[in-house]
Amino acid sequence: MTKKKDSDPTRELRESANKIWLAGLGALATAEEEGSRLFRNLVDRGKSFESKTRGQVDKAGDVARDAKEKASSAFGRLGDEVDERITAAIHRLGVPTRDEIASLTSRIEELTAKIEKLKKG
After folding, report:
1. With b meaning 16 or more CB within 10 Å and e meaning fewer, what string describes 74-108?
2. Cα angle value 10/15/17 (rounded, 5°)
3. How far, in Å, CA of 46 to CA of 53, rounded?
4. Alpha carbons 19 and 15: distance in angstroms, whole number
5. Which residue of 2, 18, 83, 109 has the fewest CB atoms within a 10 Å radius of its CB?
6. What are the tens digits of pLDDT across the range 15-56?
7. How many independent structural domains does the chain possess?
């Protein structure tokens, strides 16, 4: 009788181990089947979502481009106005412009050349 008692726990242990093994294989097979189905479903939903949102993304891009152009134009006008105000302030202070300085430089060079000519002759 002791032999029967010893073999029952061993047999039960083997059966449990086999059931665990089979359950693991079943889980793997189910995961493979469900995973493939889930993947296909996700792809289908992604296609649907993409087609729904593509128009919204395009519209958002258009809005962003328009906003960028308007901002760029506004900054350009602001820059021009700042330049005009700075130029006006410089004139009020009596600071000569670049063109005025270039003209004076040219006249000084002409006068210098005439003076040098008079010194020689």
Report:
1. eeeeeeeeeeeeeeeeeeeeeeeeeeeeeeeeeee
2. 95
3. 10
4. 6
5. 2
6. 888 888 888 888 878 877 887 888 888 888 888 888 878 878
7. 1
| Domain of 94, in residue numbers | 2-120
Separation of alpha carbons 32 and 17, rounded Å? 23
Residue 11 has pLDDT above 90, yes or no: no
**Does 4 have pLDDT greater than 60?**
no
pLDDT at 112 > cutoff 60: yes
CA distance 46 to 38: 12
With beta carbons less than 8 A apart as the criterion, state whether 96 and 104 touch.
Answer: yes
Position 71, amino acid: A
Q: Determine the Cα–Cα distance for residues 97 and 79; give it in Å rounded to an integer.
A: 19
Q: Which amino acid is at 28?
A: L
In one-letter notation, the amino acid at residue 37 is R
CA distances from 79 to 63, 72, 73 (A): 24, 10, 10
> For residues 62 and 3, which has the higher predicted lDDT (pLDDT)?
62
